Amino acid sequence: MNDHVILRCEDVTVSFDGFKAVQGMNLELKKRGLRFLIGPNGAGKTTLLDAVCGKVKPSGGRIVFQDGIDLARRKEHQIAELGIGRKFQAPSIFPTLTVEENLELAMRQKRGVLATLRTRILSSERKLIRTRLEGIGLGGKGTLRAGGLSHGEKQWLEIGMMLMQEPSLLLLDEPAAGMTDRETDKTGELLQEIAQERAVVVVEHDMEFVRNFASIVTVMHEGRLLMEGTMDQVQADERVAEVYLGKRREATC
Ligand SMILES: Nc1ncnc2c1ncn2[C@@H]1O[C@H](COP(=O)(O)OP(=O)(O)OP(=O)(O)O)[C@@H](O)[C@H]1O
């Protein structure tokens, strides 16, 4: 595989009792960068991410990660250990712990049993947590109970927790859903920043969000790749207007 490529889905098919939710999908991701995955409801976006992270098994095709690892042969926890993080729409944080403690826990998962048994946190680890807190816009909120954060802040905390495990590929489902406009913008900026060092894939329905933060957009329709390009190219494409934007317009009329 090309040195700059981290993931390649080759002709991937996922079936549910004979129904092909994803059929012959192709996707290539570079080691760094933010990719938005869009398409009408039922296009197969979530199923594709599920196949990459091992939640569902493809019935056909290959999902090649890094230097030739076929993810279709790996179990979900093994895929996570390889450095693929998946974030679902609802934040899964520990609400009764502080923001810092949440990050600490996430860090220890990475460090293994020995670190988990150690009660004292090293100053280097403390520094890492502080840096991460600043990075996710929660500097100054480290000692607050995570359950008391706003919806947007909880999402950022979860992203921060995933980053503590230093993934090389992050998969996110509608990370800005339910956020205020300001939180949405901050989320876009955060994703752009973290995508400078790793590959990030975002399944998204909010077209304004995509327009503001996407460089390359992949459009799926009926389980297949419809097109790939900049948001301008995607919006100017007649097939996309027909299957996706057209449907949206009808839906909002
Ligand atoms: N576990 C499952 N069993 C059966 N059918 C499923 C399952 N999961 C998804 N599907 C079907 O597969 C198709 C693709 O679903 P998927 O959730 O991947 O689409 P999507 O593009 O993410 O849609 P949305 O934007 O609405 O979330 C849909 O028709 C869905 O009903």
From TrEMBL:
One of its GO terms (cellular component) is plasma membrane. CDD domains: ABC_Mj1267_LivG_branched (cd03219). InterPro entries: AAA+_ATPase, ABC_AA/LPS_Transport, ABC_transporter-like_ATP-bd, ABC_transptr_urea_ATP-bd_UrtD, BCA_ABC_TP_C, P-loop_NTPase. Residues 7-247 form the ABC transporter domain. Keywords: ATP-binding, Nucleotide-binding, Transport. One of its GO terms (molecular function) is ATP hydrolysis activity. The keyword Transferase does not apply. The keyword DNA damage does not apply. PROSITE patterns: ABC_TRANSPORTER_2 (PS50893). Pfam families: ABC_tran, BCA_ABC_TP_C. This is Urea ABC transporter ATP-binding protein UrtD.
